Amino acid sequence: MTRKSRRDTNGLCPMALAILCCMPPLAAAAAGTVPVLGTDAESVAQYDATVRDAAHALRWNLNFMKYDQPLNTKLFDTLAQRGVTHIVVTVGLENSLATIEQGKLDEDLKKLSAELFQWQQSHPQVQVIVRPFHEMNGDWYPWGFKKEHDGNSISQFNPAWRHVRSVMRSGFPDLPFMWCPGVNQDNKFGAYYPGNDEVEYLALDGYNHSTSQGGWTSMRQIFHDSLVAIRSNPAIDRTKPLVIAETATTEPDAAAAALGHSKAEWFGRSFGNMGWWLHSEAPKFRVGTVLYFNYPDLHTGKALSPEAYKNDYLVYDPQLPNASVSRSAFRASVRDLP
What we know:
Blueprint: E1 17-20, E2 37-38, H1 44-51, E3 60-66, H2 73-82, E4 86-92, H3 97-101, H4 106-122, E5 127-132, H5 154-171, E6 178-179, E7 201-208, H6 219-232, E8 242-249, H7 254-258, H8 263-267, H9 274-284, E9 287-292, H10 323-334
Parallel strand pairs: 3-4, 4-5, 6-7, 7-8, 8-9
Antiparallel strand pairs: 1-2, 1-9
Helix pairs in contact: 4-5, 9-10
């Protein structure tokens, strides 16, 4: 899953439409439950347009910010007023593992955690969760250790994680941390799992990039092997809440379209696809939350040119000829979720 870094000078980047099982804070998803809907920060209007007839409340939010940026309290206040119960803050650390462990980010991280703590004290009904080092097992972020990217090594990861956790919890005691590797990089998660006492939420990121990165892949193909690896690893507590923190499908490229693939198919209820997965695989692996990355351009954070919309992740984009069909398929798959 080749990815480029998401960066945004305003502290917020792409958001996600969320399909989730609404869990009480730090409770494991019960076996047999199926995922509910939420959204990210900037796509609230798109969320409403997508699921307005599915009667789903807005409960979860996923947003992105750099470690040295001030907290967007206006956004957080709006989300709390909207009834959001969980806000996941993806903290872009923008440095190598060695630099992070050496403490060069500590003052900024202390400031951020203090701001988060102060905000939550005023909004006790909302649980704030931080997600640093996401997709650490890849080579597309400065902290990624795949192929010793940027001089990082897998042995440096757990010490860097523990350092960041210790620093941020000095300003926000009991701040929940989400550990989130990318799918199918190696699935040897035990080598870089910081430990059950260092992690409150487990998570995975995985996408269908059409045929540009290994072929059109269904939701089952994206997540099955990594979920098996996590849930069968004796070192990882099986009762911890498990989240799909990012997932999405692009528009099919020419090769995929020639084979009959479409967003509507990917969202549908046939074997392996999203609707089937939410009702079959999510309960099987006790996945409590699924966030759909509802954003037009993953790589730049800017609107795409018309000819480039094959990379569009939006559930519904009126610039696309099959937008209504895609949205209908999405709605049909989530309408009967809790």
